[in-house]
Amino acid sequence: MEEQNFSPNNLPVQEAPVITPSNELMPARNASHSDAGGPGQPEKPTMKINQNTILVGVAVLAVLILGAVLVTQTNLKDKIPFLGASNQKIAQKAVDFLNANNKKYLQGQTATVGKVSTQYGLVKLEVKIGGGSFESFATHDGKFLFPNVLTIDDSRDPAMKPVNIADVKIDGNPYVGNINSPVVLAFWSDYQCPFCKKAAQTVIAPMMAEYVASGKVKIVYKDYAFLGADSQTLAVFGRAVWEAAPAKFEAWHKAMYDNQGQENTGWATEAKIMEISTKAIGAVDANKALALSKKNVVAYQALIDADKAEGTGFGVNGTPGSIIGKKFINGAEPYAVFKAAIETVLNSK
Predict the structure, then answer these.
(1) Hey, which of 55, 79, 147, 222 has its CA 20 to 30 A from 120?
(2) What does the domain layout of the chain look like in residue ranges?
(3) pLDDT tens-digit map of 129-150
(4) How is domain 165-348 classified at the CATH fold level?
């Protein structure tokens, strides 16, 4: 990624939330690495800065400083006590501020500082949150924090062919909705991904009420299990639930995200999965799914791997990733983005 020049001239002067396409701190959990660990080894995903992205947005700290300069004319150090501090202190104070306002900026979660370095002429800090992490950048004088990146295209290789839902293999995959719905959403996800959880709650839930219930949209769930062993375990069990009780899959899918544990902590034990599954689909079907997950693990894993390979071929390089009609949606974009894609397909019928 080339170094970008930043100017405060276009930033607003009143306090506002961070502006990104999804109003999220990071729109997708990226898989920018190879499976270096070999077969059966957990991958080590990283949050990457794509060459097709540009640092943008109104930083929380930048807004406060600009407000101080242009509105109240108060002393900057009263607002930002760490001006001129070391890179590590800038990173820590930035995260402390986010945590102090976590309901507004972090959806109630707690962030911690990871690695701190210098890149592109800026302080580069790793912000860890919700079992994942993402890269942020701050100016060396501590005046501006850029907590996110905004994708200015769909992050797909321009050499790739255009996407079309008609090319997605959906037979045999778990789905919810009328089988003959005029609109199909293919949704690649990982049960450990915190951004998939957010998408399940802020995109899938309202879509169920507005479009699935009326028979206009069918949601096809595709596996992109890349974050580690728990991801594989949950994906296998999900396939078993689909075989044991397909009518209850959506309830199970929702329950797993609602009860998501910390990434790669080994939280997806048989006991925990059964506890959540029993509450979501009942003891009888949960036990059926458990038996199937053990009996058919090899066959299920082959289907899971095929889903991931297919998604990668369409340009999915992290989670969540979606295709509606001829639209590729990278990450946990706002519901409005999905709604617009749905309406485009409906209006073309």
Answers:
(1) 79
(2) 8-151, 165-348
(3) 765 666 778 787 777 777 554 4
(4) Glutaredoxin (3.40.30)
